[in-house]
């Protein structure tokens, strides 16, 4: 048997005082009994009874429990780092209500279907920023995904590879080196950055699973800004199109998979299946307290003995 708490000086003083006073009481009782020519054996019975329930009360106070106080809890799953394009083209309305709003909605569905995994979030336009480190806290992840906006970063272009580089860096910093790591890239594929071969090779080298979700349509859509459509220098309304060919080539180069969300189909269920198909590995191990305080049993036994002590009387002196 183990205890949640240890005896303090107060308990030791209390027990010592009880024993001293009770021994004095018994000694005085026997002296009086001898002077009267009587016996006082009954007081010994009361002594053992009261000592027993007093000890039971002390044990209950210390919070007794049985078995091991801690247990190893192992969590298996995957690390999923989500890269979301928040460039201005993601405001296009070829997918209603907009490409970015669709991404936000689908990410909520995705995380709800993969609750046993850790999620992180990186947003990018011309630069990439870590929004949420890998975490089991899906409420925090969903809070950040639902606040995504094209106003969060400067919109001077789109650099997908800057997001991949930051993602690889953060995944390699993670101490859980043996975990299954997944990169989920959600973009319309309009890329104006220069992707180095080293970055793409790193995805294969470190065994990352790259899943790319193209958002948009081949026909394209317009971008509304301040109540009007964005126009080019010639006054023509700008049309932004899904660059599916580039994204497919990126998936092929890195050994990844390409999926698409457009106005006719939604590949999120396939993305969920693809993530589930990746082998789950150990992503967290910790000791968790599993103590169950059993004080009630000792307290109940003490109360029964106290009631017995009160209800059952004995003759102290017997002539």
Number of strand segments: 13
Structural class call reads alpha/beta
Please state the average pLDDT score. Answer: 84
The residue ranges in which pLDDT falls below 50 over 5 or more consecutive positions are none
The overall number of domains is: 2
Run of helices and strands = EHHEEHEEHHEHEEEEEHEHEH
Share of helical residues: 40-55%
Largest sheet: 7 strands, mixed
Transmembrane segments: 12-31, 43-66, 295-317
Protein name: VWFA domain-containing protein
Pfam families: VWA_2
Domain VWFA: 79-275
What does this molecule look like?
The structure is a single chain. The protein is α/β, with parallel strands linked by helices. The protein folds into two domains: 2-68 and 291-311; 73-285, Rossmann fold, CATH 3.40.50.410. Helix content is 42%, strand content 23%. The protein contains nine helices and 13 strands. It has helices at residues 9-35, 41-61, 99-113, 138-146, 160-173, 197-205, 244-254, 268-277, 295-311; strands spanning 2-3, 64-65, 70-85, 118-124, 128-135, 180-187, 209-215, 221-222, 224-225, 228-229, 239-240, 257-261, 281-289. The radius of gyration is 36 Å and the shape is rod-shaped.
């Amino acid at each position: 048997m183990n205890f949640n708490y240890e005896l303090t000086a107060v308990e030791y003083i209390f027990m010592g005082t009880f024993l001293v006073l009770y021994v004095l009481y018994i000694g005085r009782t026997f002296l009086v009994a001898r002077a009267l020519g009587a016996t006082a054996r009954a007081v010994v019975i009361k002594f053992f009874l009261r000592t027993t329930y007093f000890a039971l009360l002390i044990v209950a106070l210390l919070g007794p429990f049985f078995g091991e106080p801690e247990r190893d809890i192992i969590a298996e799953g995957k690390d999923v780092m989500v890269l979301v394009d928040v460039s201005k083209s993601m405001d296009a309305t070829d997918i209603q209500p907009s490409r970015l709003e669709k991404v936000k909605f689908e990410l909520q569905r995705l995380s709800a279907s993969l609750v046993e995994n850790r999620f992180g979030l990186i947003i990018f336009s011309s630069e990439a920023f870590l929004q949420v480190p890998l975490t089991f806290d899906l409420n925090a992840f969903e809070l950040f995904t639902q606040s995504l906006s094209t106003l969060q970063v400067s919109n001077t272009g789109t650099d997908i590879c800057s997001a991949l580089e930051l993602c690889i860096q953060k995944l390699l910093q993670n101490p859980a080196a043996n975990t299954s790591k997944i990169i989920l890239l959600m973009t319309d594929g309009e890329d104006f950055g220069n992707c180095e071969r080293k970055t793409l090779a790193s995805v294969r080298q470190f065994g990352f699973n790259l899943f790319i979700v193209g958002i948009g349509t081949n026909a394209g859509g317009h971008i509304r800004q301040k109540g009007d459509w964005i126009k080019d220098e010639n006054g023509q309304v700008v049309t932004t199109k899904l660059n599916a060919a580039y994204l497919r080539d990126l998936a092929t180069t890195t050994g990844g998979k390409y999926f698409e969300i457009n106005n006719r189909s939604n590949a999120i269920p396939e993305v969920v299946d693809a993530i589930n198909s990746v082998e789950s590995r150990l992503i967290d191990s910790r000791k968790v307290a599993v103590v169950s305080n059993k004080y009630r049993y000792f307290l109940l036994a003490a109360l029964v003995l106290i009631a017995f002590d009160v209800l059952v009387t004995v003759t102290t002196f017997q002539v």
